[in-house]
Design brief:
By secondary structure, the protein is α/β, with parallel strands linked by helices. It has one domain: 3-Layer(aba) Sandwich (Rossmann fold). Helices cover about 35% and strands about 20% of the residues. The chain is built from 8 helices and 11 strands. The chain has a 7-stranded mixed beta sheet. A hairpin with a 7-residue loop joins strand 10 and strand 11. The longest helix is centred in the first third of the chain and has 14 residues. The mean pLDDT is about 95.
Length: about 210
């Protein structure tokens, strides 16, 4: 294993090159990481360089595919196992976003399903992504669930950095991330692993 320091702009360019080189009809990309690793920011920044490479882009937040509160909080609001197993609506994400971009798909995706703040359906309009387009699905705990991604990037934080950066009112989620490391092994299975303890000084794991 080789750790290669890289500047944030070059990191974005390298990821964009990898995505643009994919030979699938559409490219389904996971940008996986706990919130303090800023997967949302990386996905936002990546969209522009991909468009410059001639790829249409749709960004999808995993937070917009959470289950309703009645299911997420059935066993309390701070259960790390439920957070790990049941918060993300895996079936809906596959059905509405990833499945339509697979072989023989329609390209018609739903960019958001559920507003977890208001606990209501978003009523977002479907978007048709042309062939060659890219969907960037970003958020936490995305890997190891059997979702059909074509390229996966995991933004890794050391346990110490994660504990330091997670807000105090979300510290109850830490056991879920520990379990994720053990069971899903995102750093061992992702196509790209980026160490993000210092976001201004990331490093690619090769």
């Amino acid at each position: 294993m080789r750790i290669r320091p890289i500047t944030p702009p070059l990191l974005i360019e390298e990821i964009a090159d990898r995505v643009a080189a994919a030979g699938t009809p559409w490219v389904r990309v996971a940008v996986d990481g706990a919130p303090p690793a800023w997967p949302d920011e990386l996905a936002d920044t990546l969209a522009g360089p991909l468009r410059l490479r001639g790829r249409a882009v749709v960004r999808v937040s995993a937070r917009d595919f959470l289950r309703p509160a009645s299911l997420r909080f059935e066993h309390g609001r701070t259960d790390p196992d439920v957070f790990y197993d049941d918060w993300l609506d895996v079936g809906a994400l596959d059905r509405e976003v990833l499945g339509p971009l697979g072989p023989g798909g329609t390209g018609r995706v739903l960019p958001a399903l559920w507003d977890s703040e208001t606990d209501r359906a978003v009523r977002a309009a479907y978007v048709t992504l042309p062939p060659g387009g890219v969907v960037l699905v970003y958020g936490a705990l995305l890997l190891g669930r059997g979702l059909p991604f074509d390229l996966t990037a995991h933004l890794w934080l050391s346990p110490a950095a994660l504990r330091r950066k997670v807000p105090a009112d979300e510290a109850w989620t830490l056991p879920a991330y520990e379990r994720y490391e053990r069971e899903a092994d995102p750093a061992g299975t992702a196509d790209l692993v980026v160490r993000m303890d210092h976001p201004d000084r990331p490093a690619l794991v090769e």
